[in-house]
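#struct-help
A.M.: can someone run this one for me? Single chain, 305 residues.
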Amino acid sequence: MIVILGTGGTIAGTAQSASDGVGYTAAQLGVEDLLAAVPTLAGRPLEAHQVAQLDSKDMGFATWQRLASAVQAELARPEVGGVVVTHGTDTLEETAYFLHRVLAPAKPVVLTAAMRPATALAPDGPQNLFDAVQVAAAPDAAGVVVALAGRVHDAVQVRKTHSYRVDAFESTDGALVARVEEGAVRLVGRWPVGEALGLGRIARAAQGWPRVDIVFNHAGADGRIVQALLTAGVDGIVAAGTGNGTLSIALESALRGAEARGVRVLRSTRCDAGPVMNLPGLLPSAGALSPVKARIELILALLAD
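D.P.: on it. Structure tokens below:
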């Protein structure tokens, strides 16, 4: 059995006109409605539950906690072979990475979404949902992956790289996990594995999640934004540096000052791909994590302190 958990997003969105692909309202249809739009799934051993109903630009910690708990509960059922999560594209890569780090499941957890609303002339949601179920049911499938536009990405590498196209997601180093071709899953890489941090860590967030913000290096960057964050009571800062995580003199000085005051700092890059080298004398590197995923990593690290 495959369990489908709905959280809203464009895949559940509707517009006034079938020709309107951007002026829609997200999270209008329930997960049962999404299933009804894929008649080829009729008769399959599926369950569907609504965990949340929101535009993923508004995804937050409380929904992450609820979703992680729901996924873990479903995976613990012996008759469940995998879980599909329908999600909005805006923060999909963040949710995928969060689930990967917290759960690192042995069974497959497949996030899917759509770039066009359900009312579009040619919606991409039904095909993506069908493909996601195929991936979740594939032999030996494991870990948290993202299935969109016929491609399967792992949660660590995937990034949304285009604002509009239906094939908006890429694996940053080109290492796809699989392709879905006419309903058949063809493995071209490896299913992701990881070490589960467990829900116990996020249970500590009941007292409040750590505040971690992202600052960008850019021409003319100074340290004033860091000072404002310190005033606001920030716990951690991810610096999205230029190139190999480089920072202006003023911004780096401000970040080192924040670090001296007990604020945790990680250095990432605003580039679409590539790692930040961890060299002596520089602020700590986030490795190959994007700024938004480095932020999640820092939040989880702070919860462990």
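A.M.: thanks! The domain at 2-187 is CATH 3.40.50.1170 (Rossmann fold).
D.P.: also worth noting: The chain has two domains: 2-187, 210-304.
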